[in-house]
Amino acid sequence: MTAYQQVLAARAPRPYTTRTLIAGLVQDFQACHGDRVHGDDPAIIGGIGWLNDQPVTVIATTKGETLPERLATHGGCPEPWGYRKALRLMRQAEKFHRPIITLIDTPGAYPGKEAEDNGQAAAIADLLLAASTLATPLVSVLVGEGGSGGALALACGDEVWMSTNSMYAILSPEGFASILFRDVSRAEEAADLMKLTPDDLLAAGVVEKIVPDSGVGFGAALKAALLPTIQRLNATPLPQLLAQRQARFRRF
Amino acid sequence: MLKASIPAPLDRAVLAKAAALPAGLWVTCPHCHESAYRRRFGAAKVCPNCGYGLRLTAHERIAQLTQSFSAWDQHLPEAASDFPGYAQKRQEAAQASGSDESVLCGQAHIGAHTVALGVMDSHYMMGSLGTVAGERLCRLFERATAAQLPVVVVATSGGARMQEGIHSLMQMAKVSQAVAAHSAAGLVYIVVLSDPTMGGVAASFAMQGDIILAEPHSRVGFAGRRVIEATIHAKLPADFQRAERVQAAGFIDAIVPREALPAKLAALLALHGGH
User: Fold this and answer.
1) How many domains does chain B have?
2) Which of A38, A110, B188, B253 is most buried, judged by most C-beta within 10 A?
3) Are B103 and B143 in contact (CB under 8 A)?
4) Which class does domain A3-239 fall in?
5) Which domain holds residue B238?
């Protein structure tokens, strides 16, 4: 598979969405809405559920399932109030020492007028800062597109994983080609240079694990993989957990 | 008719004099588009009409802002990148800026205060955040934390360093960790946003200050104007992402004219027990 084919696989429709993935991952999911300041961004799903007998907070980007949903979520591009909802739910999880799982499938933060006027940059910056000291385990899984700071904002945890059908990059290969080659048609070439495939990123130490995307059964497979990791992180004394998290990003 | 009656100034002596004049005497402000003699922009390089500050190199900025500066971490290992022509691009950037990277970090004196200072340079690959720049900034905060120093960062950047790919993106997280540790030690971090501060730099340490200042009319934001216009299929207002609008939206503490920056920083540092 070429790097660009990997990009296409990360964008392709699949038998699950992050919403149904959450349903496969946790029982009795209780969705929580809103950032308590501005509004509720449909591009970010957040809530609490049972990972077997462990309450966890799950935060996921979503591209939506119907056309109106896809329009409302801008194809999975969060607005600042979506990032602030994520931050609120992370703080809430911290209070109850509840592990956090983030599921990421986003081309990036939404490039819109209201998004900028409401501090898109500051919203992402706040998440990066908060994640560094968040006193609870945080595991992130890239399950589709992982684009730019908009994906990184939700991927600053103790471990970052990718599914076999995902990508993670500084921006889209089309954007990369348009900036560096001034030619958007050279996206395939750009994708090769960008080292955005799960294998490349595992080799570079950017992610810890690649989870096979088994289609319909992916939620169950992900759950099986997450259980021991969440258990281990949850048993790690907090100072050690935070020191490990800091060391994880310090080496880049 | 009228045209023919006015003699064209083709006198050889006049042309010779004009050719002998140094280039660049007349400067058009990139913000208000008014022109003025370069001398009227003054040593601080500020438009006499609108107060916009022309983009400074890091060395110019350090000279304007500080009484002394001693650089830290000048010889870090180069970033690994397979991107074709990247080494040459960096060489050209070094020549254009007089800096060896997009940020210079070191210990400085601002007024009577000792600070850890980071100054970005838009003349070096648009101030983009690569691995070396990220490492310098990270060490700036680490050294400041160890030495109990306040941090001042003068930000200007187009965002991430595309040529370094995902490693550039990781710098945002790495520097944020160091900012958090500095903050947890109860130390103050002041940011000065200058034109432009965009993308991954705005979305990380440039928006993480305890106090965020900006120079007049600086462009501050995440996504680029053209990308947004292409996405929403609409024209954006003239003041979009300008510091004044961003302040009105609640994200900037104060807009400070360039000449007033050293005094403003000194006053804020004094209030935080600067030494």
Assistant:
1) 1
2) A110
3) no
4) alpha beta
5) 55-271
